Amino acid sequence: MAEIVIENIRKEFGAFTAVQSSSFRIEDGEFFMLLGPSGCGKTTTLRMIAGLELPTSGQIYIDGEEVGRKPASQRDIAFVFQMFALYPHMNVRRNISYPLVSQGMPRALIREKVAEVARILGIEDILDRPVGGLSGGDRQRVALGRAIVRNPKCFLMDEPLGALDAEFRERMAEELRALHDRMGATTVYVTHDQLEAMQMGDKIVVMNHGVVEQFGVPQDLYDWPATMFVAQFLGSPPMNFLRFDGQFAPGSASITLGDAVIEVPPQREGAQGALALGVRPEHVRLDDSAALRGHVIAAEYLGTTQIVTLSTPQGEVKARIPASRLVRPGQTTGLAFDARTLTLFDVAGGRALRSAANERVLADG
Amino acid sequence: MSSYSITEPSRGMKWTAGLLVVAYALITLLPLLWIMATGFKSTNDAIAYPPKVFFEPTLEGYVNLFTIQNRASAEQLAENPATTWYDRIVQDKGMVISGPSRFGEMFMNSVIIGFGSTFLSVVLGTLAAYAFSRFRVPLKDDLMFFILSTRMMPPIAVAIPIFLMFRAVGLSDTHAGMILLYTAVNLSLAVWLLKGFIDEIPREYEEAALIDGYTRFQAFVKVVLPQAATGIASTAIFCLIFAWNEYAFAVLLTSGNAQTAPPFIPTIIGNTGRDWPAVAAGATIFLVPVMVFTILLRKHLLRGITFGAVRK
Ligand SMILES: Nc1ncnc2c1ncn2[C@@H]1O[C@H](COP(=O)(O)OP(=O)(O)O)[C@@H](O)[C@H]1O
Ligand SMILES: [Mg+2]
Questions:
Q1: CA nearest neighbour of A27 among A148, A207, A184
Q2: Which of A78, B27, B70, B171 is most buried, judged by most C-beta within 10 A?
Q3: How far apart are CA B241 and CA B183, in angstroms?
Q4: What ipTM was estimated for this complex?
Q5: Which domains occur in chain B, in start order?
């Protein structure tokens, strides 16, 4: 059980900065997702929490204690590596018992604990097998076994499902989440897969180029992205941006796109210059009477819904609408948005502008 | 298996390859077999012309190798009748054994110096290679190049300075001196070979051990060493073969106390210059330890000598 606080943590490799001044907070018992594209510094951040990498500056608190300079062996955490890193010269049982051996636990007790973990993970039948011949899923379970057998303060997992094939991932993801719910231990989970992050996480921190873009519950991040990066990284297809030049004062509740006046949540700050209106595809309606006009380029059928791509003077827009609606490429139609769901962005800074709708989320992210 | 395959060689190809390998093995083994056979010949058979392939085996060569003998008069021979098989062999030639030869001693010197320097090279090499592989060592590349550069000239080129230094510090003709010298020569090879092997072991294994509560040294011993076994074994074989066979430094720097077998074996031939069977016997015995060591470690060797060219 542990609460982890990361404060202004920074990591440089020579002249290259892998993580820049990141801060976030992981509550006790949370399933916490570290999400971002490849190379953004997720692994480095996780390794600093684990004690495998020394931060260049900043603090890491586990349960209130600053551990930034403590060796990994004294942090009481468990780490599940991307490629599992099972000790290849030991069988499954020895792999799982290895952390207990280091604590000098009596043999009989070790046997008992390993048996219990094996039962939880359903790997009793492979305990005496060498790890070399195991399937991906079984390796994953053994790696988890080695992590949970010690009952550590928290689990750190680096893309633990990345090495598994697609159909197995789903099942392991469920098993993992169920295991977490049962043990209630704080878990920090690294992934580059936004769907995985949203499905499994209690909270998500999104990183890009070593910078924390936003952190919060999945729903808040999805609905009220703090940056254009988050808006595009979450969701498939991602949030649409209608780019325009304009200006408005604090308090205004509409913007002008060409001839169309679009209602937006009341703005808390004014802006001018290159701006973008962000709208999720599921919040776009095709409405022939709407003033904002678009030209259908393509329609992609997905069963219950379809993704319609439209070209507008402000750029391409994708709409997710019921599959029953008949749309033909070449057709011209109007686009209407649900005003309560819109976010305005300052294009130069890539940052969301505060409004009545998102100020709560932006304030704590 | 009649279908055509692009990866599987055809039967004819396999046979040809097999025959070539056997022919090559015979050609390389022939001198070795000849030496072993000569060890069991009589002095006359050994220098007979045309060479004798079939001969009556005798242990005379081995007896000569291990003993010092004196010519004896008929009365002396009558007074001390032969009691053992080797006395008999010697007395048949009209000689008596006056004591053991120094071959045993020299052989033990070879064992001590060969295995001692191999052990030292591998231990130091493994530690250095691990550090170069895992830690941020300042000027790492330059240091690695420097280590390699010590191998670029033939070691014997520095024989004279080493001879003078050894004399000055009293290392001439000592076991410690020879162990140090062979370790110094072997170490560069050992560091380079072992670094290659250790580089291939994913760091995650050690990191997992660190997180599991082990110290860096424990992780090194319990996780890295078992995985590096192949590399360590093949490096050890290379080091041993060099130290075992080394001749030039041994001639130059040792005389009686720490002399190894290679400079000693040629002296066995005796003042008549005819005792080839004893020389061959010495050479045969000399070959045994390296062969045994290589056979013991052979399962590591095949993967080892490909130097990581083959990935797991
Ligand atoms: N030991 C290292 N030395 C130099 N650069 C590194 C090292 N580890 C990671 N990096 C660099 O830091 C950046 C972030 O890496 P990483 O944290 O592994 O990203 P992620 O896990 O998000 O894909 C990458 O550009 C990577 O090349
Ligand atoms: Mg990574």
A1: A184
A2: A78
A3: 12
A4: 0.83
A5: 43-101 (no CATH), 104-306 (1.10.3720.10)
A344 and A353 in contact (C-beta within 8 Å)?
Answer: yes
A302 and A284 share one domain: yes
Structure confidence at residue B306 (pLDDT): 55
Specify whether A353 is located in the same domain as A289: yes
Give the number of the atom of ligand 1 that is nearest the alpha carbon of residue A53.
Answer: 1
Burial class (CB in 10 A: 0-12, 13-18, 19+), B249: buried
In terms of Cβ atoms closer than 10 Å to its own Cβ (0-12, 13-18, 19+), residue B24 is exposed
Average pLDDT over residues A68-95: 91
Q: Of A177, A198, A223, which residue is a domain's last? A: A223
Residue pLDDT, tens place only, A248-296: 899 999 999 888 999 999 999 999 999 999 999 999 999 999 999 999 9
Per DSSP, helices labelled H in chain B are: 11-38, 43-46, 60-66, 74-79, 85-92, 103-134, 140-149, 159-169, 175-199, 203-211, 216-219, 225-245, 248-253, 261-264, 276-296, 298-304
* A50 and A64 both lie in a single domain: yes
Which pLDDT value is given to residue A168?
Answer: 80
pTM over 0.90: no
Give me ligand 1 centre to Cα A134, in Å: 29
Average pLDDT of chain B, as a whole number: 89
Number of compact structural domains in chain A: 2
Final residue in a domain of this structure, among A223, A250, A277: A223
Q: Considering Cα of A202, then A206, then A211, then A216, what sign does the dihedral take? A: negative
pLDDT over 70, % of chain A: 99
Q: How would you classify the pairing of strands B67-71 and A292-301?
A: unpaired
Q: Which of A244, A243, A247, A242 is nearest to A271 (CA)?
A: A247
Interface touch B207/A72, C-beta < 8 Å: yes
Cα separation, B171 vs A99, in Å, equals 48
Indicate which residue's Cα is closest to atom 16 of ligand 1: A41
Q: Which CATH number do you get for residue A306?
A: 2.40.50.140
Residues with CB under 5 A from ligand 2 (ion): A 43
- By CB atoms closer than 10 A (0-12, 13-18, 19+), residue B41 is buried
Going along A14-151, which residue ranges are E strands? Answer: 16-26, 31-35, 57-62, 65-66, 77-80
- Atom of ligand 1 at shortest range from CA of A190: 21
User: Are residues A218 and A80 located together in one domain of the fold?
Assistant: yes
- Whether B84 has a pLDDT exceeding 90, the answer reads no
A196 to chain B, closest Cα gap in Å: 24
**Is the model more confident about B79 or about B22?**
B22
Range of the domain at A293: 228-364
On whether both A169 and A287 belong to a single domain, the answer is no
Residues ≥6 apart with Cβ < 8 Å to B190: B121, B122, B124, B125, B126, B129, B235, B238, B239
Q: Tell me: do A177 and A326 sit in the same domain.
A: no
What is the CATH classification number for the domain harbouring A171?
A: 3.40.50.300
- Please say whether the beta carbons of B261 and B274 come within 8 A: no
How many angstroms separate the alpha carbon of residue A40 from the centre of ligand 1?
7
Of A51, A71, A85, the CB nearest to B208: A85
Regarding the beta carbon of A16 and ligand 1, being less than 6 Å apart is answered yes
Does the beta-carbon distance from B211 to A85 stay under 8 Å?
no
**Same-domain status, A218 and A232:** no
**Dihedral sign (CA A345, A351, A353, A354):** positive
Averaged pLDDT, A107-134: 92
Residue nearest to atom 7 of ligand 1 (CA): A13
pLDDT digits (tens, 9 = 90+) for A144-187: 999 999 889 999 999 988 877 888 888 888 888 988 998 888 99
Residues B180 and B190: their CA atoms lie apart, in Å, by: 14
State what percent of residues in chain B have pLDDT above 70. Answer: 95
